[in-house]
Amino acid sequence: xxxxTITTLGELKKANYQSKSIKDELRxxxxxxxxxxxxxxxxxxxxxxxxxxxxxRAILSRHNINLLGLRGQAKTRLARLMLNxxxxxxxxxxxxxxxxxxxxxxxxxxxxxxxxxxxxxxIGWLHRSERFAEKLATPDVTVADLIGDVDPIKAANLKxxxxxxxxxxxxxxxxxxxxIFVINELPDLQARIQVALFNILQEGDIQIxxxxxxxxxDIQFLFTANPEDYTNRGSIVTPLKDRIGSQILTHYPIDIExxxxxxxQEAKVVEGQNDMVAIPDLARDLLEQIVFEAxxxxxxxxxxxxxxRLSITALENLMSTAERRALxxxxxxxxxxxxxxxxxxxxxxxxxxxxxxxxQEGAAVVAYNLIGEGVRSLFEEFFPKIEKLKxxxxxxxxxxxxxxxxxxxxxxxxxxxxxxxxxxxRLDAITPLDELLIEHQPNLTKGESYxxxxxxxxxxxxxxQLNKFRFSEGMQFKxxxxxxxxxx
Length: 488
Known about the structure:
Elements: H1 9-14, H2 22-35, H3 51-60, E1 65-68, H4 75-81, E2 89-93, H5 108-117, E3 123-127, E4 132-136, H6 143-146, E5 148-150, H7 152-158, E6 168-170, H8 172-175, E7 180-184, H9 191-195, H10 198-202, E8 206-208, E9 211-213, E10 220-225, H11 229-232, H12 238-243, E11 246-249, H13 256-266, H14 271-276, E12 277-278, H15 281-296, H16 309-329, E13 334-335, H17 345-349, H18 356-361, H19 363-379, H20 399-406, E14 412-415, H21 420-428, H22 431-440, H23 446-462, E15 467-471, E16 474-478, H24 482-486
Parallel strand pairs: 1-10, 1-11, 4-7, 7-10, 12-13
Antiparallel strand pairs: 2-3, 5-6, 8-9, 14-16, 15-16
Helix pairs in contact: 13-15, 13-16, 15-16, 15-19, 19-23
């Protein structure tokens, strides 16, 4: 018999439907996915050998779970993906506020309805997409919000005494019976509210305004928390932590390849931008390297974390910077330039928490310097190392480039709004760059070579071989000693 044709309790019994708790449901479906070699948490990258195995073990153990990690570590996404481990549909007593199981009712309403109508009790079917409840913990959350309260309007309408349990209005948690219930940022929940969760997690009974209700709620709890919250805004009270079966630590991507996967998956880039703007692989790597540099920077509060959302919004801004430049110049297509990375600074400044020294430098300066540090870190993966100290008369692959700039008395300017044609002709004038690329990066496409040329110039600045000056319309590169010798 098909599920959608079963409409009464009697038909459900005839179909030999077997009830199971939500934790058993999650466990059984996970076991099936593991046996079938299916991906359990689709679209989550970098956790394959760390977080996901721990999460699977917690589900197999039928635990309530706390995901502990810094901002932007996919904690909420993992919680929402658990929906995929639920059955497609479950039966509920029609009209029940708390999704009563027709075979094991727990509310007064469902029990009385089944007593009255027996096998004719009407049932409905709840899809798994409706079995997810989420609450952001804020200081103004009350016990009434989560657990419930007495409803005087209901008492008046039904002409009931306040001693009658039918005057109760259930809160979010009882209404999430047989569902996944997520509380985000758990430490932000006031301690007295956390206390109200004790019995729900352990014994399953709740109290509302003096009513002691034995409601064995069937809920998979999942909490998220940021370790920074433990000191800045609040903490998870110890008895509550004791009742949470598994605490799982999340983390940021550990390599650029994984970080790129996440960024490219999550960035909302419109089709028109993809058609107009090309991004070299080196530019994508640099974008992620900047985020890695931010997480290690002495100017940025490491306890606060640097969210994966930084690289996502930075990619969106980078595409838009190149798109806007091309539109102004009248170019139909363009490729991202290194100078376009100035356009990602607003994405950085809004997502980092600076320590005192960083505040003294200023958020924009710190962000700009991170771009340079990213260039410096990636440079030696593609070109020979630039030594801080070198022997007298020792030759390096960069001598010809530095000499070229030495002879440019007025410096070399790259304006932000140059058309693609003018931009390329400016870089083509630095002939030693072509020789360097032919020797060390011979497989570059013509389009990518211009990004790499500018990349080399920025790297020479970072390694003190050239000077770079930022002004309102663009950048100027100069030999660090030329102006001194010429007296300019």
